[in-house]
User: Fold this.
Amino acid sequence: MTRKLMLLAMGLILVLSLALTSCGTAAEQKPADFYQGKNIDWVSCTEPGAAAYSIAQLYSTYLQKVTGATGVITVRRGAGGTEGPMYVYNGKPDGLTMGSWVITPMALQKIMAVPGADYDMAKYTYLGSVDLSPQVFFVATKGRFQSVADIKAGKDLKLAGTSIDGNFTLGSMTVAYVLGLDAKVVTGYKGVADVVLSMEQGETVGMIMPVAAAMPSYKAGRIKPLFYIHTKRSDVFPDVPTLMELAPVTGDKQALLEAWDGLYQSFHTFSSPGIPADKATYLQESFSKIMADPEFQKEIDKISGYHVTTYLSGKDLTNMAEKVMKASATSKATFDMLTKQYAAVKR
Amino acid sequence: MLEAYGQALVFLFSPSTLLMMLAAVLVGLIIGILPGIGGMLGLALFLPFVFGMPKEIALTFLLAFHSVNFTGGGICSILLNVPGDGPSATALLDGFPMNQRGEGARAVAAGVTASSLGGLVPCFLALAMIPAILPIVMAFKSPEMAVLVLMGISFIATLTGRSVMKGLISGFIGVLISLIGIQGATGTVRFAFGSSYLYNGIGIVAVALGLFGISELLEMSLKGQRAISNAPVKSRLSDAFAGVVDVFRHWWLWLRCTILGYIIGVLPGVGAETSCWVSYAYAKRTSKHPDKFGTGVVEGVIAPQAANNAKEAGDLLTTMAFGIPGGASMSLVMGALFMVGVVPGPPMLAEHLPLALTLLLGIALANIMGGFIAFFSAPYLARIASLRFEFLFPLILCLVLAGGFVEHNTMMDVVVIIACGLLGLVMKKFEFSRPGLLLGVVMGKLLEDYTLLSIQIAGPFFFLTPICLILLAILVGLFAYPSLKKLPASCVGRLKKS
Assistant:
């Protein structure tokens, strides 16, 4: 009996000591050690070739240098654009799932209650962001409309848009509303390349586009910027005025333009909600280190096609997402009103 | 100009460039041959290498790789009845029956010759054609594109097989499949049944792989077939040479399909699949023996293969000359140009003429290299047809399923492939038209998108523009032509009787 008890006690001690040792290892493992040699499941929410994809590739290269972890990038842009954000949102909170996209469509999908956008923007662990690419109204260089006066004088205008709940469409509707244009927004174009061609063909007048997306066509001399939709000018086109300068507004129109200040086109990287604080801080610091690297910045300038001056930390992004989501109900009501008034097709 | 040509030639014929291009061509052919992995994915894989490379080398590598991709895709279609990519699905309609007769080497050689020459000719015509292209591109607005796509979709009637009704039903099912998902212009979700996978619709590659690849595998298994070929396989170099001769024998068809592919290529937004299907249907419609199409006639291989590379060449030239990408893969090429500091468009021809010529001649050279490699490989590749089916079945099945999976990284695509495979089997058994269904999938969404855009822009009578009316007249003419051709003979017959 005594022998059995002794054996049981020894077994218990062994199990306990093993458990305690392993707990100690887990608790003591620093994030820097944790990431060494690990694979990161990295989701790109855009197709290869798009700036966000290239930035994800660049980030993963530099992150490997800083943390020793390898980013394995897969494209997930299904489910009407919600596949990527949902994949990261539902990912394990171990800091090994990341996503890269543009904050505007991600926020607008949520605000406009697009089917499948069941994520909470404020809950993601934001890591860092490259470039606050402003949104600018562009027209064709050789088109009929060369100034705001031309556009204001036009009748039955057709502005361009992509998907009905998309950034480009809602931006163009905002322009029509603030300037009081006699216009409709044509939806269904597949992207910037399609729209630029339609502007050159005289099919549409112009569209709101993020500078990063419009840069190739701008540099090819096909389009020219008329005004920023935001309340402040940017360094990219310092001589281009803001919509507010052209059409001084108050009340709901002013609020709408201020809302666009939160909808800059920023290429952000995010991880699943609820990852441990030490890992989140480590990743955010690593991203800040990468973004401060002059070599990295040089590569980013190459991808963007202009000198990028804005890099946001994970904490800045969290604040931005919270702000956008706080105003989401008001934004939705306004965008619904705009869609009703300016969409060339009904939902 | 001559100096720029000289610079381009010196660069291209340097040993290091030639070696690098050879590597790009080999990889391009292999990736093209692998089912489902199209040039788009390949370009995406190689894009990171652009960072930090000298622009001439980076771009020549990417373009050489891309130029021969469809050539490889056609080989897979012909030999295994598995489309290497979406556009290559047309090559299997007649290529695979030829392979089953033991004429795989001839079919492959005909396909690669048509394809390589189809990619080569537009490069030499490019500089002369560039001034003519821009007015065409500018004239084809949404209404004109809608009517053009309508022309394409009307070819379903040409691909019907024995029963017109069954063919039209197949096409209609294809159109319905193409409408699954979120409608971009209105945001309406259709036929998704709450599944987020279906929001983006069903991919053409998955449908093609299932409809042709899986269904053929299942049928061969059910029949207890021992090998792909039912006859002794002709796998000598002379057999392959017969395929080259075929292209020259049908040079007029090849030329028409090359031009057709090129014109469709310069029009942004139509897609490579359209050029191949339209060329195939056009070849069948204008053939003296349309009833033989689908049973293994070499014209059925030459027509789509000539169009697919010509389309890519046209697309590439438009991207470089005007900065207007015609399709998704060209957007990627445009991104690569941009990354190395070259802005595609008129400034490129003005500021980087030697580079533009290097790329142009590089595409031509890649097509020649690809053609030679594929031609000399054809006799060996054709021997696949004589391999025992129990070895081939698992290999092809794995390739098809893996190829379908990698496009979107989702198992749901594999489910779609298997479902389409079963559908294809049933369709084959009851003589419904599988090409008709695939054409419906390819063109249905395009027709809807362009029609909706046109209605928003010009109202319900958007088709009342001169170009639309001309296109509609051509469409009516194409359909009336066979009956009109018979008219004089029947009139003479009646007169004689009376």
Observations:
- The two ends of chain B are 70 Å apart (CA to CA).
